[in-house]
Amino acid sequence: MKVKTSEGVGDYRTLWWGDGKLMMIDQPKIPHEFKIHECKTYRDCAEAISTMIVRGAPAIGAAACYGMALAAEAKEDLEKAAEVIGSSRPTAYDLFHALEYFKENFSGGNAVDVAETYANDSAERCRMIGVHGAELIKDGMNVLTHCNAGALATVDWGTALAPFRIAKEKGVKFHVWVDETRPRCQGSRLTAWELLQEVIDHTVIADNTAGSLMRQGKIDLVIVGADRIAGNGDVANKIGTYTKAVLAKENKIPFYVAAPSSTFHNELESGAQIPIEERNPSEVSGMWGFNKSGKFGRIQIAPAESKCLNLAFDVTPAKYVTGYITEEGVD
Ligand code: MRU
């Protein structure tokens, strides 16, 4: 992805191997600061996944594979490393897919190559999602997306946002409604930032706005990403996705899920079996950001005494999904 920094425009991936370390864009600071975070050990990598310095299913998968490469290069116990990395976040299937990939392909001495190949293949899958998904976007459309399923959530290109990038390249004129996506605000922080970089027309809306826009005929299409898709097509994605899917069906608006094959957990019978991450309630009771003096910190919103529930994902039953955009096509 192209990133405008104070030093000019740079070409970045979300994460990459550099100088014997795993480098990644530090996502909690975006859009206010563009910093690179370094992981020197597999434990650093697990920590970066659980604290969401790197997040989004395909990016988590690639980070896990690079984490295993760090462990192998340091001659660590690989079973232990896989256990620690595998416990960093529970929902995104890509994480487990990547650990399995590393186990199958590592033959001693090729750890970094295995991780590089995984990351390159993952980026290419996302580019193909863009090629296929762009066919759905027509001139004059208003498209809604939830959370961030862009380049930042993958090695590059994104899943839900990849079709936007390709459609823009093809000269299609469209507008994107960006769900803010509380509590971590991946929409208002990360998707809005990415769309600005790509010069794609967009408007950020509060999470509870989309239903009203749908009723007014102001949303023509919904495209979201996925963290895990069960064998029956049920989709786990960022909390709030289910609400949008039900509203889309009620308003006869096509609702598409964009995801690479690494997100499909076909052995799972249904979405009911997908583990849903519950994160720290402090993410709901407060918000993070930069204050006027440029200091990054948290402010308390809810009464400190109130209980808060922080479910990171929900499951959208397959009956609400119009189609799946994968590297193979739209089905
Ligand atoms: O908690 P996050 O930010 O990791 O959640 C991300 C999402 O829910 C994305 O929609 C999903 O991972 C698809 S990313 C291409």
Compose a concise summary of this entry.
This protein is an alpha/beta fold and 331 residues long.
Can you tell me about this structure?
With 331 residues, the protein is an alpha/beta fold. It folds into two domains: 2-126, translation initiation factor eif-2b, domain 1 (Four Helix Bundle (Hemerythrin (Met), subunit A), Up-down Bundle); 135-274 and 312-330, Translation initiation factor eif-2b, domain 2 (Rossmann fold), CATH 3.40.50. It has helices at residues 42-50, 57-73, 78-86, 93-105, 111-133, 162-169, 186-197, 210-215, 241-250, 282-285, and strands at 2-5, 8-11, 15-18, 21-25, 36-39, 142-145, 175-179, 202-205, 221-224, 228-230, 235-238, 255-258, 264-265, 286-290, 296-300, 313-316, 323-326, 329-330. Strands 8-7-6-9-12-17-18 form a seven-stranded mixed sheet, sandwiched between helices. Helix 1 (42-50) runs antiparallel to helix 2. The relative contact order is 0.13. 5-S-methyl-1-O-phosphono-5-thio-D-ribulose binds at residues 55-58, 92, 147, 149, 153-154, 158-159, 186, 225-227, 237-238, 312.
